[in-house]
Design brief:
By secondary structure, this protein is α/β, with parallel strands linked by helices. The chain is built from 12 helices and 8 strands. It has a 6-stranded parallel sheet. The protein has a two-stranded parallel ribbon with strand order 2-3.
Length: 304
């Protein structure tokens, strides 16, 4: 993918373009079309967020845009948060009236493959999270990501017991600081071979085993569509154990428009109907060269 270097002046100019257009112009912009000069101007006419979904976005696929420029763009769109940033970026995000929807703060050498499901990882992980939880809380951040790790020969039962043992050591501290540890559900079929927390039922059973309101699941819609499908029913039945959502088009994890198989407005309505008050974070990799247009389009699709 070609990297596009965007200056602050250009981004702000493009985000502000069309502010004088009437609301009637917006009604003529099809949601599912790729960016062109005409529909880009119309799509920028006003912020699109602000109904029943609280919007965030994962930083990773926008790393070519400077963080302060990206924060300013997100704020203009009407978003509330950016995901998967660590403590060094807290001040930059807060400067623009945003928060970090899901904090990423892992000890070196740990993360997706090496998580709580192996007992030999607990000393390093627990010691790190004992520091990370108060730091997140002091900055006003509410969610901190964690991972099961890869099976590496462990049964699902053994991995669950090990995860629970490690997380139970942190639960009282998380409760004290009102920070939720969120274990991400990821598919092991295509993207993350051997990852253990790869089914909602397994994650929910782990939540019940831990027994704390400060340990829940990050339900990645893209990953769970691949791994198990039945997304809407699963969300409705397990809403009590989900604190956060990520999006992505299936297949390919690209735009969530009509080029892929999920109908995101229906998924978002199902989420909103549960009374969910957390964040839904866009985590697709844009095909469109105008990444900010794709982001605004995704927010518009999800703002039910």
């Amino acid at each position: 993918m070609k990297i596009v270097n965007l200056s602050r002046r250009r981004v702000v100019r493009e985000l502000s373009a069309g502010m004088a257009l009437g609301l009637g112009a917006l009604g003529m912009v099809p949601l599912m079309k790729k960016s062109t000069p005409a529909n880009l101007v119309a799509a920028e006419a006003q912020p699109v967020a602000g109904k029943r979904i609280h919007h965030s976005v994962c930083r990773g696929t926008y790393n070519d845009i400077p963080l302060d420029v990206f924060c300013e763009a997100c704020k203009k769109i009407g978003m509330e948060a950016i995901d998967l940033l660590g403590p060094k970026d807290f001040d930059a995000v807060k400067k623009y009236g945003l928060t970090v929807g899901m904090v990423y703060d892992q000890p070196e050498g740990y993360g997706l493959p090496r998580g709580f499901n192996h007992l030999e990882h607990h000393d390093a992980l627990v010691a790190h999270y004992e520091k990370a939880i108060p730091v997140a809380a002091a900055a006003g951040m509410k969610n901190l990501i964690c991972f099961s790790g890869n099976r590496a020969g462990l049964s699902d039962e053994a991995g669950m017991k090990n995860c629970a043992a490690g997380i139970k050591k942190l639960a009282p501290l998380a409760e004290k600081y009102n920070v939720t540890l969120a274990m991400e559900l990821l598919n092991s079929k295509i993207d993350h071979k051997d990852y253990q927390c790869d089914h909602t039922n397994w994650g929910v059973a782990l939540c019940k085993m831990v027994g704390s309101d400060r340990f829940k699941l990050l339900y990645d819609i893209y990953h769970m569509q691949i791994q198990e499908g039945d997304v809407i029913r699963t969300i409705r039945e397990n809403a009590a154990y989900i604190c956060h959502f990520h999006t992505g088009g299936v297949p390919g994890r690209h735009e969530i428009d009509d080029t892929q198989e999920l109908y995101y407005p229906a998924v978002m309505r199902a989420i909103a109907d549960t009374g969910f008050q957390g964040f839904v974070a866009q985590e697709f990799s844009p095909v469109n060269k105008d990444k900010l247009f794709s982001l605004r389009q995704a927010i518009r699709i999800c703002d039910v």
